[in-house]
UniProtKB/TrEMBL annotation:
This is enoyl-CoA hydratase. InterPro entries: ClpP/crotonase-like_dom_sf, Enoyl-CoA_hyd/isom_CS, Enoyl-CoA_hydra/iso, Enoyl-CoA_hydra_C. The keyword Acetylation does not apply. Keywords: Fatty acid metabolism, Lipid metabolism, Lyase. Pfam families: ECH_1 (PF00378). It comes from the Bacteria. It is an enzyme of class 4 (lyase). One of its GO terms (biological process) is fatty acid beta-oxidation. Could possibly oxidize fatty acids using specific components. One of its GO terms (molecular function) is 3-hydroxyacyl-CoA dehydratase activity. Belongs to the enoyl-CoA hydratase/isomerase family. Its EC number is 4.2.1.17.
Length: 257
């Protein structure tokens, strides 16, 4: 499959999607979103893939939704066309997705990173929701996911002033899982991806589902849901293999069943 706005590679069991519209700082236009959708759907169906990494360039993960593409839309074109609705695939993918962010992750770029399961940031990363500066507000989950990640005070600060937040501040605030030197970003993200992809796939999918449930439900329901999933994993061969390997002091050989 050949793409115009992204590059797609596989590294053993890790799928890598590199956003590639350098002339527009990876601004997210309809073609790019549909290509990301297509690549993710392919990785989701591919038994040989256990984790996906999404990255951009050194200068920009993505500088937001494509302002030039959307600026002339009428209300009814925006509302009825629901062009942001097409981004939801990223949040619906069941396999783990790591965002590897260097440079600008602004507006829809920050929102795309937050749709992934966690963010590894280069020390050059700059996060922000600057939509207010162009007369709108975040439209791909920014007011919701950013608030859940960093709390109300910092989310309000970023969404209302449109200022950028560097990698260190983002890590302190809980938006970012770890910060690494820019030169090591993709290698570190692929390493994390490979570690995840080496786990039992059913366990990884359930772990992701259970953590995400924490944002959707009450504590008591979430704990109950987690326990159901935990017990259900005893029906897998991988649970038997994982625990036997521990007792026998060897590496487990998971078969994703
Ligand atoms: N959409 C379309 N084109 C964009 C873009 C965007 N979001 N961001 C950057 N570009 C383009 C610029 O227009 C420019 O193209 P030309 O050379 O053809 O003029 C090129 O990328 C390089 O950009 P700059 O010259 O501006 O680069 P810079 O280094 O001086 O500034 C920047 C970098 C601070 C990121 C600046 O480009 C910027 O502020 N970009 C817009 C950020 C933004 O407002 N994002 C939110 C978009 S709205 C949104 O995302 C809605 C949503 O929630 C879904």
């Amino acid at each position: 499959m050949s793409y115009e706005t992204i590059e797609v590679e596989t590294h053993d069991r890790v799928g890598l999607i590199r956003l590639n519209r350098p002339q527009a700082l990876n601004a997210l236009n309809a073609l790019l979103i549909s290509e990301v959708d297509c690549a993710l759907t392919g990785f989701e169906k591919d038994d040989g893939i256990g984790c996906v990494v999404v990255t951009g360039s050194e200068k920009a993960f993505a500088a937001g939704a494509d302002i030039k593409e959307m600026k002339d839309k009428s209300f009814s074109e925006a509302f009825l066309g629901d062009f942001i609705g097409r981004w939801d695939t990223v949040a619906r993918v069941r396999k783990p997705i790591v965002a590897a962010v260097a440079g600008f992750a602004l507006g829809g770029g920050c929102e795309l990173a937050m749709m992934c399961d966690f963010i590894i940031a280069a020390d050059t990363a700059q996060f922000g929701q600057p939509e207010i500066k162009i007369g709108v507000i975040p439209g791909a989950g920014g007011t919701q996911r950013l608030t859940r990640a960093v709390g109300k005070a910092k989310a309000m600060d970023l969404v209302l002033t449109g200022r950028m937040m560097g990698a260190e501040e983002a890590e302190r605030a809980g938006l970012v899982a770890r910060v690494v030197p820019a030169a090591d970003l993709v290698a570190e993200a692929l390493k994390a991806g490979a570690a995840i992809a080496a786990m039992s796939l059913p366990a990884a999918l359930m772990a992701k589902e259970a953590v995400n449930a924490a944002f959707e439900t009450t504590l008591i329901e979430g704990v109950r849901y987690e326990r159901r999933l935990f017990y259900s994993l005893f029906a897998t061969e991988d649970q038997k293999e994982g625990m036997a390997a521990f007792v026998e002091k060897r590496k487990p050989a998971f078969r994703n069943r």
